[in-house]
Every structure is written in structure tokens, then in C-alpha cells.
Write a structure and sequence with these properties.
heterodimer, A: mainly alpha, 9 helices, elongated, B: Rossmann fold, 4-stranded antiparallel beta sheet, 6 helices, 27% strand, globular
Chain lengths: 240, 212
Amino acid sequence: MTGNPVRVHPVAEGVSVAGAMKAVFLRDVKVAFRQRQDLLNPLLFFVMVVTLFPLGVSPEVSFLREAGAGILWVAALLSVLLSLDHLFRHDFDDGTLEQLVLQPQPLFLLVLAKTLAHWMLTGLPLVILTPVLGVMMHQPGNSIGILCLTLLIGTPVLSLIGSIGAALTLGLRSAGVLLSLLIIPLYIPVLIFGTGTVAAASEGAPVGAYLALMGAFLFLALTLAPFASASALKISMSNS
Amino acid sequence: MSEPLLKAVNLQCERDERILFRELSFSVMPGTVTRVEGPNGSGKTTLLRILAGLNDAWSGDLYWCGQPRARHRESFLRNMLYLGHRPGIKPLLTPMENLHALMAGRRPVSEAVLSRALEGTGLAGYQNVPCRNLSAGQQRRVALARLLVADEPLWLLDEVFTAIDADGVQAIEALLQQRAAEGGAVVVTTHHDLKLPGMQRIVLGGGSVNDG
């Protein structure tokens, strides 16, 4: 105790928004590295789904060359979906989410920091693994580059849109099915343009327009999704 | 400061088609301790969550320093500390890391101060043990360490005495009293028989406010 008279502090006397976002981001990264199996789960899922296709459907080069990009995109989408429930669930259960909602900084920015941490821990490793799996799927070098680029733009969109669903289903005991039903329709355009870009590139068509559209998805999600997630979090908080 | 920090006028809350309380009006003055009491399920936690701004399913008016709270949300959040049922402690992080993360969003505090706060709650020597290896009471003590570094004038504490041993309970009582003497306001819900001089009581279930 300081012994000073207790007084009402002006808002400016506190932590800056950037500082608070950084703290949220760093805490999530730290917690994730203490629980490495959770970190490996989506990655292993991604690798397993992709390797099962040559075994289960056909190991022929012509098939893999044609379907490879689509398989990689679908596997990446599903493994992000698989990891979404963890985005807020643990924080909700141990009460840190309450404290996050009660921080004086705008909630949508703190949610954005959390979502970026989620992307860095799930989406980014998938992008990094993609070249290896791309070679395995007999993708030409040019396609692999474009595939990585589309996933690099696309996976943050998946995390951002997913955060809305994760926040909305937070109050439910078993959110899994509902979360997928809510989120998959919103993922479809990203998937179509992601795989479309790679298909266009493999045919030698210009991909500028496709990439511009994907960039538009990213910025739309970046600016709108955190607001929706923050509102959804407040609703879930209110009902618990 | 003679103005109430927090003023509730005609609060009403309904849950599962049951009215928990209605026409509940009270003021939380600086330098006072307010105890919310009532049987299980009477809405103590709900009332505290409404006051903290975590629950939106209520009607009535809430004023923060005389202004409608909804319009001064940032100022309110900056000056209010809420400790809930769930302590807000990450089991995978150490007490030090937890405390640091919780303070990082509110006010920069040096490691030395945080370390002293942990020692003050009897967690000396546990600073670097992951919280999941600590007992329930020790985990609550990590959350309580925040009270020792808090500069917020309004504290909303839900069941602070849960899982705390007799010495700890005494220490918390003394802390609340000292906080009130310094000019802070504290609202606690508890089943523990808390008796402090000048304590305001809000009794739910019957729905009345008594000055004790």
C-alpha cells in the first residue's frame, strides 16, 4: 500500500493500446509454448490429411498434380477450423477472458491481438510446411510459390472469420458442430479464390486479379471481424 | 470526494424468467466497504457482474462518479478492479507471469513491486512454479496479490474468502478495512461472516439495503 489518498485516475494514466495488445499477444504465445501438443495438433492433422490422399485415392502424378493444391487448401482450412475452439475457450474457463473484457482499452483491438497470435501459432506454421507437402503432391515450382502466397493471405482470413464463430459459441457446452456450421459457409469464398488462384497460375494465366481479391478479403476481415468478435464475446460473457 | 463512486438506481434483473431483484438502489461511497449478502442463487454474483459491466441483462440506471456509466466506460474500467469466481490465472504460467500479464493491460508495474506483492500474499518461493502445481487457495492468493498493487479506487470482489485459510481471511479483512480508510470503495459478496465497522449491507433475496 502506498499510503497515498485513493483517487479516480484519468483514462490517459494507464497503458497504451499498443502496449496492451503486445502484452495480450505475448501472453498467448507464451501459454501456447508451454502446451506444445496443442501447438502440434493442427500441424499433424494437416500433414496427415494431405498424406492420406495419395494413399487413399491415387498416387498417380497426373491426379496429384491436378488435385494437390485443392487438397492442401482444404486440409489447411480444416486444421484451422479444428484449432478455433481453443482461441477463447481456455481463457473463458480460467477467467482471464473476463479480465480482458474489463481492460480499459478497446476490446476489438485486444481481440485482434489474440487472433493474430492464433494465426501465428496455427496458420503460419501451415504456410511454412506447405512447400514440402507441395513437392510431395508433385506441384510444379511456380504453383508452390503461388500456393504459399495464397495460404499466407488466406490463413489470417480463416483465423479472423473463425474468431467470430469461436466468440459466439463460447457460452455453449459443446460448440464443435455449431461452430463448423457457422463458419464453413464464410470460408467457402476464401477457399474458392485460394484454389482458383493456384489453378490460374498452373495454366499460365495472370493471377494479379485473384490475388487482389484475396487481399481485399484479408483487409475486410482485418477491419470487420474484430468488431464482430468483440461484440460476440460481450454477449457470451453476459450469458454466462 | 463526497460524491458516490458508483450509484445504482432501480436495478432490476431477471434470470430464467425469475426476478432476482427489483427496485434495488444504493450508492457506493469512497471510503466504505459494502457487503452483498443473500442465500445461494439470490443473485449476488449476478449483481456484481452487472456492476462490473460483464452482464448486460438488466434494467435501471448505473452512474459512475455521477455520470451515466455506459458513456464513461473507459474511465470506469480504468478505475475498477473486478475479481470473479474464476481467478483469471493461467495454470500454465507462473504466479509472476500471471501477475505481470494481468497488470500489463492496466498499469506498468516493476517486477520488484510484483515480487513484493506475491510475498505479501504468502507466495514467497513460489514465484516461478507453474500455477497448476499450486493449491486452489494458493491460486486464489495469486489473484489476490493484485489487490496489493492495485491503484483502482473501486474494487468489486466476488467470494474473496473462498479457499483461503484463517490467517489469510484475517489479512484480507485488514486489507479491506485499510483500503476503505485510504478512501477506496470495496464491494464484496461473501458467505463468510464479515463484520467491519461502518459496513454497508445489501441483502438480496429480500431486496433491501441496510446501513450497518
